[in-house]
Design brief:
With 94 residues, the protein is mainly alpha-helical. The protein is built from 5 helices and no strands.
Amino acid sequence: MLGFALTTHAETLMLNIIRSTRISDEIWLKWVLPKHKAEIQNQYERLKSKRSELDKLELTYISDKSEILRKLVASEEFTSLVPDNFFIDQLIDV
């Protein structure tokens, strides 16, 4: 139970860090695995048709969030908006 809580908390932190950069869907979707990208689009369209639109970022897997964070840290444009690589690595290792 504690492991699930820790993983969920880490994923929520990742989501909030990514959101704080205000990166557009068009940019971070390029960094997601093609299979996951298709799933995100399908889920988003299904929810949109039911008028239950969510932020596409909420539809990603934790592995997608960790990849997006890695790309943000590596990007000169977003480096100042994300925590140091040491802290990102700790989140990803959870």
